[in-house]
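Aim 2 progress update. The chain analyzed this quarter is reproduced below.
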Amino acid sequence: MVDTLTPAQRSALMSRIRGVDTKPELAVRRGLHARGYRYRVHLRGLPGRPDVVFTKRRIAVFVHGCFWHRHGCAKTSDPKSRVEYWQTKFESNVERDRRNQEQLVRDGWRVFVAWECEVEKDDTLIARLSDFLGPPRLPEPA
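Predicted structure tokens:
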């Protein structure tokens, strides 16, 4: 199938796709903060720059978009144009995710992956993540 947009239109459309602070990511962060968790965001130096990081607990949370990271749900559609390019792109995304998560585990981190579709429809995601994290830590007394 031929792309119906001009290269300039396609470029403008793709440039609006966010890499950080996406709606699902912000929803997870709001939910965790409301439950009393404090965390770091996009910590440089860690493989894959996890979306939410609990440094003392050594826990990394990734909030993956279903389309870009190939979850397999209804949001995981396949583009109709430039199929070979997109297939290669998606395969490299999945492989990079696997390598980053394996490296974090080798370095002693625990990894939790939240999918975009879970954030949007699953009311239990924050509860499951809270169970994974354990109770929030109380601030040190002054």
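Strands lie at 40-41, 52-54, 59-64, 110-115. The radius of gyration is 17 Å. These observations will guide the mutagenesis experiments scheduled for the next reporting period.
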